[in-house]
Amino acid sequence: MRLTFGHLFGLKFTGSFLVLIAGLMTFSLVLVTNVLAQSNTRADNPVYTVSNFEVWAEAKDAVAAKRAALADGRSVALSLLLKRLTLYNSYDKLPTLDDKGLSKIITSLSVQNERNSATEYLATMDFKFSAKGVKDLLRQNNLPFWDRQGDQVIIVPVVDAGLLEVPSGKTKSIMSQDEWVSSWNTLDLSHALVPLKIGERLAVIDDAVLSALIRGDKAAKEGLKKAYLGKSVVIALLSASQSKNKLRLNLVGFDGVGEVAYKSDYLMPEGSAIGAADIAAEVALGLFEQRLKLLRVNPQVVRRQQPVEVLPWQTKTQEDAPVAGWQGDVGGARILMHVKFSGLRHWQSIRKRLLDINGLEDLNIEKLSARGADVTCLYPGGAEAFARQVASAGMNLQPSGDKWILLAN
After folding, report:
1. Of the CATH numbers 1.20.140, 1.10.30, 3.10.28, 2.40.10, which one belongs to the domain with range 49-140?
2. What is the average per-residue pLDDT within 27-49?
3. Gyration radius of the chain over CA positions
4. Which of 95, 247, 360, 381 suits 200 as a labelling partner, its CA being 20 to 30 A distant?
């Protein structure tokens, strides 16, 4: 005997009532499907993905190096994500997780490309985190955060003509337009709190207009907005600094918060313009994100239509501003910094110079990757005094967005 809907429930229905039940079931199924789809959409919030992330480690063999790189990479990726979502003054309170906790909060990871030798492993990876898990972690630690992407900003990288010229006795220019664009493309632009899109420099933005924009000319700013059809757009002009062995970054335009007018110089590590450009692009992305978070989490700090002509943590008065990367400690000031380097030999050279500095104590390497290291140390007088000391050793310590960055020739 063939079972019918009525037999299954021990009931008898008329044909019309069965049609009604079937219709209600179809409606319910559609409703549930829509709810699940909306839930999945929320779960797939792009800010909870850390992409284009380099992992690197060296060990006794390739297998051990890969294991160490992945373990370290998961922890650092979580740290980057938490910094993406929180304000700079929460960074010293950010929680960490052990392997078991990381396994629960990371929903997937994928390897984009990898290379290895007998003792080293290097790869670029994408990490996806559980939105609920991350938010619960931040709430448990009473940390304010913002996880909704802001308006997309068109970033227009431009290299000043002076950098494009080939110096006497050299075979190539200091910096090419493609290299400056590449510095931006190495960043995780699409998953950032303020997503960035690389834009082309329009013909109307000639050198005269660029100069006017840098000077703060009101008509030039209005012209920029009109040229890009009223969209959020920022020119990122890279030029030679008046200081030796440094590049200058000028950001001018508009983002979702308001007007942007920022400038800062960046040391060229080992004379590398590309190294300085990479750091400048990374800092600029962090600046856009901090502006959005300040507006949403602490709106009294950022006012719409107020240009950012100072570092992101500088507010109404300098006295109100927190000191980047510093926290008090007995016997000296504990300094937290990110050391940039071009390779293993460069890192070993920097580490040796740091260890030779008089008064430096308790040098700890918290995280190490292919191109940088998170380092803490103790130094009497704090970061300002330490900056003067490292300068004599051919290094440069500078506040950069939300942290101290150490560069060295």
Report:
1. 3.10.28
2. 53
3. 26
4. 247
